[in-house]
Amino acid sequence: MQGIILFVLLVSTYLMVIAKRTSALIRSFRYQSLCLFVITFSIALTQREPELYIVAGLLFILKVLLIPYLLYRIIRRIKVSEDLGLFINPQLSLLWALAFTYLSWIFASYIVSANNTILTGTLAIAFFVVSAGMFLMVFRMTALSQIIGLLVMENGLFLLASTVSGGMPFFVEIAIFFDVFVSVLIMGFFVYRINKLFTHIDVNKLSRLKG
Amino acid sequence: MSIVIVLGIPLLLALGSLFVRKERLFGVINCLGYFIVLCASIVLFNQTVFAGHIRAFFDFIYLDLLSAVFIVVIAVVAFASALYSIAYIKKDIQQKIISPGKERFYYLLFNLFCFSMFCVPAMNNLGMLWVAIEMTTLISAFLVGFYNSKESVEAAWKYIIICSVGIIFALLGTILFSYAFSISGLSKSLNWSDMLPVAQVLNKNILKIAFIFILVGYGTKAGLAPMHTWLPDAHSQAVAPISALLSGVLLKTAIYAILRFGIIIIKSGEFAYFSHLMILFGVISLVISSGFILVQKDLKRLLAYSSIEHVGIISIGFGLGSPLAIGGAILHVFNHAVTKSLMFFGAGNIVSAYKKHNMNSIRGVIKVLPFTGIRVLLGVFALTGFPQFSIFISEIMIILAAFTNGSYLIAALLLLFLAVIFGAFIYHFGKMLFGNHPKDAVTQGEPFSGKLAFLFLLFLICGLGVVLIFKYKDLLWLAQRLLQG
Fold this sequence. Notes:
The complex is a heterodimer. By secondary structure, chain A is mostly helical. Chain A has helices spanning 2-18, 22-47, 50-78, 90-111, 117-139, 143-164, 170-198. Chain B is mainly alpha-helical. Chain B has 18 helices and 2 strands. In chain B, α3 runs parallel beside α13 (323-354), α6 (150-183) packs across α9 and α16 runs antiparallel to α17.
């Protein structure tokens, strides 16, 4: 069961890498967060820890409902082209993603010493999600895609933390959720400002400061 | 008890800035508040010197000598900055650059920013340490973009994005540390005080990989090259008192975080690994910054690159690792914080008098701003390590330690690049401070609170240079205990 969810999570990440429009990116982000929610919820069911239910609930409210809603709202309000401004076309991006997946697998099997395939696989997927987020931030040049890239990286870390060390301590987890939410709000605020001052959100064209 | 004062007063002041209607009065209250924080931090320092470490609030807060030193540094710069803010913000309002309502917003952010920085050294839990550092980024982004011009919003965006990515890597490193902790069969915990005693039994391979992520992650925030690209933009666009805080102490809080993890690495018996990485990043920072300092045209960017240089020196000092080097490095943390604050205050006054950042069109500062000009002149010599200012002492300690360790190459590189940077600074500032001042400029008086901030910092810079000659044994004794936990 967990294998299937992890596979869906992997596919949603691939969908993000090849997405051409911001709304498609946000939709895939929502699928990815939903997978994370299902994983956390199933861990909570087996371990019967009330704290994990709260973490899962927060994950659902913040990352599946609230943050995608905020991002959609920004798209509607700023009315710029939804084009992501690809530096690398989708086919090539997919090749990159495949290479990253393989590298993540090697890295994961280096870290996990015992012959534990499930743990290694989960770890590899977590590392891949982090690197895919990084990829989105570097090769997609709108301010919104950079925010989403950051969120994807954070999702990868959440998966990593919940598999390798049984999650962060409870209050740290809550603090990190709060932190992610606040950072989305603040970055969203800056996207509005950039759009107002520059009338675009193409980060590549922000080049007034040099040297 | 004093930790409650240190953390509580900034929060109270943040609340106060929402309710106090008289902005002029609030500036003074703010300043008094930070004076109390400064006193409390010194009491705290004394307590840790004698008691070893303090725990409070169910192990949530853990303070040892290292954290106490950083809290004192933050308190000193925050006090000076609060003092300078009164005059600076008043001038901005008079010149109609910002509206009076925005002054309250400024004080709210100022206090929240200081609170989040005070949280960093106080946290025991490494996850909370991460949250505190991320909070400093999020709050100060508003202060970088405060003037709402195209340049400042661009700087704020780069700052928030690059630092957030960096810090995500630091979180990855933190998770790997906790993984190393959990596979050694110990109960789940992210408390530093739980990790340290068992450092020897943790899996060394995982610790090493984790430390790379930590160094890259927090190193981005600390401004270590080549992850420094956000730093000159943010420091040059922020409000002048905030530039001082960013450069003087925000970078140091990230250094503090690196050291926390570094101590675990050292305790696990991998000192050479820690040392090589710190020295490598330190030297790269020194080389890159010296190049940019030579060709720089913008006054505040020049100072920002100088911060990268000094963070590099601090990193080399901690990397060398002998008591002399660590003493030098921790002293350098303090010295750089006070000297660089002085320089940013001076730059703030110069920029608001000339309305320009470009050094080629700033001439004759000594005649136009006599008070600031002379303090900046002294500050330039202090910053470049001229003898008997405090930075001279800390730099000579690090260089001596490099020689006695047998790392001649590092000592030679340090001396070479310090000489280059000294030359570049004298060249840039010589032209700016002396030279013919523009015809329409008149000699300007300066407000009392601004002068007081300069004198306070100058007193620390000069005083420490003299006091340390007699007190160096105490310093070495402290340095030996510093990385013990």
